[in-house]
Amino acid sequence: MLSSRIGLSRFGFRRPAAGSARPLIWFAPLALGPVLVAATTGIAVDRALIPGFLWLAAAAAFSEEIWYRGIVMATLRQRSRRTAIVGSAVIFGVLHLANLFGGASPLYAGLQLAFAALFGLVAALVVEHTGSLWPVIAWHFAHDAITYVGGDALNATTLAVLAVEVVVLAAYAGVLWRRLPA
């Protein structure tokens, strides 16, 4: 009987490749968003709920990164590296439209679609450059945890922070895209 063994490393569960990432370089642009959100919103939920929100953020970070930057990218990479990156980002963004079913306004859902697709693009590029899911799991956790604890409000301050974060992430995506091997 033939057996096949697919290791978790195929899906990104490994250390970043030697020389592929200096943690401060990779995390500087990624850390900006969560830091800005934390600085502008503070804690907007009952402190007793914080542990639950942290567990939720960890669950979302692990499950979404395993699916989109792990399994989806590994599957699409058979076509090409760039197809895997863009495809996983688009699917990640579109599936965030499910928040409409939870009562999110169309404006909020549209902003979340666009931001999730950009977030997914940068996350996929970081995974492609480092060969590891760990940096993006940490980033995803930090982003979601701070957003949940900050109350996830849509107001002028959070829109301004979002605009800054989008500009930084778009620029970072451009840099990482240009550095992809052909």
UniProtKB/TrEMBL annotation:
GO BP, sorted A to Z: CAAX-box protein maturation
Entry annotated with the keyword DNA damage: no
Highest taxon above the source species: Bacteria
Entry GO MF terms: endopeptidase activity
UniProt keyword annotations, A-Z: Membrane, Transmembrane, Transmembrane helix
UniProt key word Membrane: yes
Record-annotated CAAX prenyl protease 2/Lysostaphin resistance protein A-like domain positions: 49-146
Residues spanning the membrane: 24-44, 50-71, 83-101, 107-126, 156-177
Matching InterPro entries: CAAX_protease, Rce1/LyrA-like_dom
Pfam families (alphabetical): Rce1-like
Protein name, entry field: Abortive infection protein
